[in-house]
């Protein structure tokens, strides 16, 4: 079965502590209005039950809009929610286990932080890679050293699946990241902490389009 990878252009990772006291559903829906194409539910400080409730609320609003909802790390919660898929890191359940549990139609994303992670990505199992951090970031306390654009470009050439770049992405540098080979950009604070989440998402989406206009054939 061939799985359809969604539009990765502007990929939002949630983080309520960065949302300036606003309701998560409101932040996400505002961002979607502005151009967010994929949402990943990542609430590290929330309990499993609380995350499940948040996921249900988001799924009820996103599914009619055709925007996929993925769950970070927790394959069990993705399964319980009936979410569109899961994103796993190098220390989480292996992608092949996530695939076996979620089934052939689910989306499975995998974090790649450097060349040493490349052997963990089987394109028969993983639909897309989340590569980064590209630039230094404060959104992830345990982030590995930044790859930079040159390091990202070298890594991108070795990946046989679509790639979404993450880490320190802003409207000012998103275009360059797309030009370097990314299929989309993933952000946390650039949208969650923005005064107007719709405007922030729209600005990022415009930068992505500009980058594609300058991208060489891949």
CATH superfamily: Aldolase class I
User: What is Rg?
Assistant: 16 Å
* Percentage of residues in helical conformation: 25-40%
Give the overall form: globular
The class by helix and strand makeup works out as: alpha/beta
Tally of DSSP helical segments: 8
Write up what this structure looks like.
There is one protein chain. This protein is α/β, with parallel strands linked by helices. The protein has one domain (10-214): Aldolase class I (TIM Barrel). 36% of the residues lie in helices and 16% in strands. The protein has 8 helices and 8 strands, in the order βαβαβαβαββαβαβαα. An 8-stranded parallel beta barrel has the order 1-2-3-4-5-6-7-8, surrounded by 5 helices. Strand 3, helix 3 (75-81) and strand 4 (85-88) form a beta-alpha-beta unit. Helix 1 runs parallel beside helix 2 (48-62) and helix 1 runs parallel beside helix 8 (197-214). The protein starts with 9 loop residues before the first strand and ends with a helix. The relative contact order is 0.17. The model has no long low-confidence stretch (mean pLDDT 94).
What does the secondary structure layout of this molecule look like, with pairings?
Layout: E1 10-13, H1 24-34, E2 38-41, H2 48-62, E3 69-72, H3 75-81, E4 85-88, H4 95-102, E5 107-112, E6 128-131, H5 148-156, E7 163-166, H6 174-179, E8 184-187, H7 189-192, H8 197-214
Parallel strand pairs: 1-2, 1-8, 2-3, 3-4, 4-5, 5-6, 6-7, 7-8
Helix pairs in contact: 1-2, 1-8
């Amino acid at each position: 079965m061939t799985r359809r990878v969604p539009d990765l252009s502007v990929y939002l990772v949630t983080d309520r502590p960065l949302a300036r006291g606003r309701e998560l559903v409101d932040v996400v829906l505002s961002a979607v209005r502005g151009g967010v194409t994929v949402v990943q539910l990542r609430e590290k400080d929330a309990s499993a039950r609380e995350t499940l409730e948040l996921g249900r609320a988001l799924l009820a609003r996103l599914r009619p809009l055709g925007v996929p909802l993925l769950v970070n790390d927790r394959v069990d919660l993705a399964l319980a929610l009936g979410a569109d898929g899961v994103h796993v890191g190098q220390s989480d359940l292996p992608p092949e286990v996530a695939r076996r549990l979620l089934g052939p139609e689910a989306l499975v994303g995998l974090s790649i932080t450097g060349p040493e992670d490349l052997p963990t990505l089987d394109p028969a199992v993983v639909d897309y890679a989340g590569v980064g951090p590209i630039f230094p970031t404060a959104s992830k306390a345990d982030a590995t050293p930044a790859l930079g654009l040159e390091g990202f470009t070298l890594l991108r050439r070795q990946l046989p699946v679509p790639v979404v770049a993450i880490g320190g992405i802003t409207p000012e540098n998103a275009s360059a990241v797309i030009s370097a080979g990314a299929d989309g950009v993933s952000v946390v604070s650039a949208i969650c902490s923005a005064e107007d989440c719709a405007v922030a998402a729209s600005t990022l989406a415009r930068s992505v389009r500009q980058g594609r206009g300058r991208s060489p054939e891949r």
